[in-house]
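I am writing to request your help with a piece of structural work I have in hand. I set the record out below, with my sincere thanks for your time.
___
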Amino acid sequence: MVPTIVPGVEGNTVKHQLKAASAAVAALAVMAAFPGMALAQDGKGVAELAQHGGAQRIAGVYGNATAKNVILFIGDGMGDSEITVARDYLHGVNGSFDGLDKIGQPNLNTVETGTGQYTTFSLGANSGDSLMAKNAYGSLAGGKTAGAITPVTDSSASGSGWATGTKTYNNAVDVDVNGNPQLNLIELAKAKGLATGNVTTAEIQDATPAVLESHSTERSCYGPQGKTDGTSSNAAKNCLASQLKENGGIGSISEQLLDTRADVTIGGGSKYFRQT
């Protein structure tokens, strides 16, 4: 059994966005004061980052290649600071977690393992910073920029990054800045004949669980009638028209969850499956 914990990023609330924006501004100010510190633009450019797997910074293979099971735990809104607070509270400032703190440490475990981090910047503040911008009627309007390095992410862009290895714009679910679907974790697992599951305390259509098995240019395209209980439709607002099955597309997030169909699915959001 190989448990893996990945910090999540939730940017759906004004509070989270303001805190993230303030942190980003502060970080940029510090970097400006020290020319030796690199900004995102000093690394790969948008064209490289937007490629499938382009988010990879260091190549390497870690862990047990013959592991029978892999469980990915995602703490939405969790980062190093939250882990530190929990460690200090439970074990004191000089304490350690038996599993997490021993990963990758020589002489502390017998399995070759490692820990890692990933960047959470995105390639656009919204769909307008991609080629997938739409108008008020849900039709493709075409963005002016195919991606723009953006310090503040949301959970759909961040989730798409760890689920596919591809950087994308805020609001996107497993599509690149050109709207091309990117292979995600459950699709890859099913292709290998592995049993899969997707369990969440949120709605199963929410960005973090959705990136495990669906693709959408708009994170709010929960069902064929958009993000409603089925008594009305706001699909034009929340979905790109060409994505809807009625127009020959791959369908809403709920429809794709049914098509991809993990062996075990547990979460909220049943009302979005009742849309017509």
